[in-house]
């Protein structure tokens, strides 16, 4: 049996970029002390979630990848012997920016990056103002401990993205994310939204026979108008919850995943084997209406 211990870092952020980075590093150390081999940080962990407004000054938060944050995290990864999944605001060139996750291996080496493919544009989530859609395609990374697939937040709603990532050989799918409730919503709406978010990601584990790890930020932002709902979780390859974070508190949790279960579940629920790939051409259409 191949088992891997993954660390989930669910934290709140401030306006101070260095303070957030230092806090994240401290929590990576905490996860490693608990036995984590792969540590996933939440989406855009070095800042508040700035996409609630369209403000040109926020572009100053972006940095090169590799760059200052990955340099600092590479030192920590090598020191602790852990893989670090780090979601950052990437400045690719003058006027060209991405929502990007870097992967650092346990020896401190930089393995590469994944650029978020699906970009939302909703009230308080104005990401299209800031981020160019990813152009690297879907990615998997061969780390010391497992072959991991990375998708980012809005990607989590798309079974096509998780399917492709699984077909590329991912042993585990990680979702750094930043999603929350408007604080003027009623509790029933809040619960419905959270349940939908968790359900769609657990379904990716079931459909693909791959463990899923989703790490979300927590805390009030946007002058109290948004409560990021935390609720980070990890599932096995059948979608069974192995860990569920709170909606209110920072947490650093380590979960052991048995990667050999993927073979077991894929044998008994052979969804990959039974796919009718010869019939899927219409999926590339925007809508099937004859136009």
Automatic annotation (TrEMBL):
GO process annotations (BP): putrescine biosynthetic process from arginine
Official protein name in the record: Carbon-nitrogen hydrolase
Pfam families assigned to the protein according to its UniProt record, in alphabetical order: CN_hydrolase
SUPFAM superfamilies: Carbon-nitrogen hydrolase
Native source species: Pedobacter alluvionis
Molecular function (Gene Ontology), one example: N-carbamoylputrescine amidase activity
InterPro entries: Aliph_Amidase/BUP, C-N_Hydrolase, C-N_Hydrolase_sf
Organism superkingdom: Bacteria
CN hydrolase domain segment(s): 4-259
Matching Gene3D superfamilies: Carbon-nitrogen hydrolase (3.60.110.10)
Keyword annotations from UniProtKB, A to Z: Hydrolase
């Amino acid at each position: 049996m191949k088992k891997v211990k993954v660390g989930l870092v669910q934290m709140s952020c401030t306006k101070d970029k260095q303070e957030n980075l230092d806090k994240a590093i401290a929590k990576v150390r905490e996860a490693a002390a608990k036995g984590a081999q792969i540590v996933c940080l939440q989406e855009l962990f070095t800042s508040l979630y700035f996409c609630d407004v369209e403000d040109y000054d926020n572009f100053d938060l972006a940095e090169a990848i590799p760059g200052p944050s990955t340099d600092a995290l590479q030192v920590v990864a090598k020191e602790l012997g852990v893989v670090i999944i780090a979601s950052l605001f990437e400045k690719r060139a003058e006027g060209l920016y991405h929502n990007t996750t870097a992967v650092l291996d346990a020896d401190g080496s930089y393995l590469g990056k994944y650029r978020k493919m699906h970009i939302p544009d909703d009230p308080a989530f104005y990401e299209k103002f800031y981020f160019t859609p990813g152009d690297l395609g879907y990615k998997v990374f061969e780390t010391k401990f497992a072959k991991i697939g990375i998708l980012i937040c809005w990607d989590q709603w798309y079974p096509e993205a998780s399917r492709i990532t699984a077909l590329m050989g991912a042993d585990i799918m990680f979702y750094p994310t930043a999603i929350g409730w408007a604080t003027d919503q009623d509790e029933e709406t809040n619960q419905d939204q959270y349940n939908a978010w968790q359900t769609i990601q657990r379904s990716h584990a079931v459909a693909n026979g791959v463990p899923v790890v989703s790490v979300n930020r927590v805390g009030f932002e946007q002058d109290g108008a948004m409560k990021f709902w935390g609720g980070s979780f990890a599932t096995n390859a059948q979608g069974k919850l192995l860990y569920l974070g709170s909606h209110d508190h920072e947490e650093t949790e380590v979960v052991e995943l048995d990667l050999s279960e993927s073979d077991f579940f894929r044998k008994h629920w052979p969804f990959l084997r039974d796919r009718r790939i010869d019939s899927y051409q219409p999926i590339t259409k925007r809508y099937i209406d004859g136009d």
